[in-house]
Amino acid sequence: MRFTVLALGVVGCSDPVKSTPLSRTERLDPASCASCHPSQYTEWAGSMHAYAAEDPVFIAMNARGQRETNGALGDFCVQCHAPVALAEGLTDDGTDLDSVEPSLRGVTCTACHQIDSVDGDHNNATTWIPDTFFRGSLDRPMPTPAHGHRDSTLHDRDALQSADMCGSCHDVITPAGIELERTWREWQSSQYSLSDARLQQTCGSCHMPGRDGRAAEVDGAPDRRIHSHAMPGVDIALTGFPDATNQRAMVQAALDSTVWLQLDVFDYGLGTGVTVSLDNVAAGHDFPSGSAHDRRAWVEVVARDATGTVLWSTGVVGEGVPLRDVMATDPELWWLGDRTATPDGNDAHMFWEVASIEEGGLAPPSRFRVDDPRYTEPHVTRTFDMGTVTPDTVEAAIHIRPVGLDVIDSLIDSGDLDPAIRDRIPTFTLDGSVTRWSATEATEEDSGQ
Amino acid sequence: MALRRLATIAFLTAGCGAKDGDSGTYEATPSDAGCGGETVTVAPGLQVACTTGDCALEIVATDPAPPDRGDNTWTVRLVDNTGSDLPVKTLTTAPFMPAHDHGTVPADYAGTLSDSGWSIGPFDLFMPGLWELRTAARLDNNTDVAIVVAFCVEG
């Protein structure tokens, strides 16, 4: 009789798709999650977290880095790109990921949902415990025999601590001690990291937007406020990968609203000047961020006469042309992002060569008062002297490539990257930044029409 | 034995114990995104008074409904205290997050008049939290009116 009651109790409680506990192998395999969490799995499967160890640029850069440092790089890359494979002892340095089951590569479900604590602020300083519990932020989760649940603020978008977990891999310090990637630190310096609920925006607030739905597709599961696991940023898949078109569209949408660009065209007596003002409005971190030393973001400004003839320009970068190549002929080029140098002061092309870094991204609104030395001005301007031209229109826009073509060319030249990848590097134009000044409209405004 | 059975049932219920009292259903736990109680619920028919108090902005429709993260387009009309349409020459809006001191990209949007009212947008509400739709309208008689609709975008 007791067994009858017990059986009724379990079925009535959850009626799970998975009626037995997941084995250890199953818990490490994202496909095991798909039956009860299909939307989360589908979103994740097209994400850059799923792609982390498949990305040919990562594979090429790691291979070259291991070779050029005689293996000193060790697990530097793979600690975040394939943390489960590393923890399971399936790779030491990531050069042999081909031999690792795809389910154990990349940043998988277990890689995040079995992080038990964050012990530092960079290079995946976390404690990962592949036990029978998955960590999450569900209020009173549906019981399931598949796995246990541990409530965790690290996995709660509404908790500031959740940013610490993201930051553990999205801040990277090189073996040489260079703070190469600082997305978490940038966010920490912004008003969005304050505990004031009116200001607070965590990583998940923007990159994991909420929706009403079920956390698990099992009978009796309630509608909750759940969140997307697609997590778009700026990188996209460069090889065949699920949901690539949708991912690209999400990246484009996220970029479109990021930076507000304003133009002021003026006659200074001896010629015409144009002041371009940029405000990082929507990124809770710098723009660009992450591997900002490899990203290429820039400002394009073009002045034309009434016939459309270009009178003056900067930042006009042809399709397939590396930004670095344009610098030689475009001294006014406004490059947004980090510049890195080798010990002898030359441009560093690969991160293991970097001895110094000059930060050049657009900072988000700061948490500090204007008189605080840590205050950063989110409103950045640059004035260009267009000389004696009298433009009829001036148009400006911001473009970004997730990785510079000069970086890609270098990896191709070293034999580490398939040349076919080069044509797949996108150039995004931030639609919200596209701004046009017209002499006619300016005159009408001045005359109050 | 009966006591033991009751205890077993009680234990199982506690294990399931995720249900709310008598309703027998789980409750969603929406995030208020730090908006507090300063907001209105934007829905068709809602009227928000002009700052001068002698007119109101009426929500005709929003897409999506209710307003949500991402691109939003609203249809509105400006009415007087009797609910009649006011003759509007121009209408512009600027979505803004007052706590953050930032708006959208671009910052403002000119309304376009259609049969159902003034259409504004699409504007990207890219962050959850308290947003204000700051609307300025110039009437045919060149009177300027302003309306602020404060609403919450859920996280």
Please characterize this protein's 3D structure.
The complex is a heterodimer of chains A (449) and B (155). Chain A has helices at 2-13, 24-28, 30-34, 38-45, 48-51, 56-68, 78-81, 83-87, 109-113, 161-170, 183-188, 203-207, 244-256, 323-327, 405-413, 439-446; strands at 115-118, 126-128, 133-136, 148-151, 171-173, 179-182, 210-214, 223-227, 259-267, 272-280, 296-304, 310-314, 334-336, 339-341, 356-358, 379-385, 393-401, 428-429, 435-438. Chain A is an alpha+beta fold and 449 residues long. In chain A, the strands form seven sheets. In chain A, strands 11, 12, 13, 17, 18 and 19 form a six-stranded antiparallel β-sheet that branches. A three-stranded antiparallel β-sheet of chain A has the order 9-10-16, with no helix packed on it. The longest helix of chain A has 13 residues, at 56-68. The model of chain A is unreliable at 1-16 (pLDDT under 50). Chain B has 155 residues and is mainly beta. In chain B, the strands form two sheets. A five-stranded antiparallel β-sheet of chain B has the order 1-2-3-8-7, with no helix packed on it. In chain B, a hairpin with a 4-residue loop joins strand 9 (129-139) and strand 10. The radius of gyration of chain B is 22 Å and the shape is globular. Classes of the chains: A alpha+beta (449), B mainly beta (155). The interface between A and B is large, with 48 and 40 residues.
Question: What's the layout of helices and strands?
Answer:
The complex is a heterodimer of chains A (449) and B (155).
Chain A (H helix, E strand, L loop, with lengths): L1 H12 L10 H5 L1 H5 L3 H8 L2 H4 L4 H13 L9 H4 L1 H5 L21 H5 L1 E4 L7 E3 L4 E4 L11 E4 L9 H10 E3 L5 E4 H6 L14 H5 L2 E5 L8 E5 L16 H13 L2 E9 L4 E9 L15 E9 L5 E5 L8 H5 L6 E3 L2 E3 L14 E3 L20 E7 L7 E9 L3 H9 L14 E2 L5 E4 H8 L3
Parallel strand pairs in A: 3-4
Antiparallel strand pairs in A: 1-2, 5-6, 7-8, 9-10, 10-16, 11-12, 11-13, 11-17, 14-15, 17-18, 17-19
Chain B lengths: L1 H15 L30 E3 L5 E9 L6 E11 L7 E10 L4 E2 L5 E2 L1 E3 L2 E9 L3 E11 L4 E10 L2
Antiparallel strand pairs in B: 1-2, 2-3, 3-8, 4-5, 4-6, 4-9, 7-8, 9-10
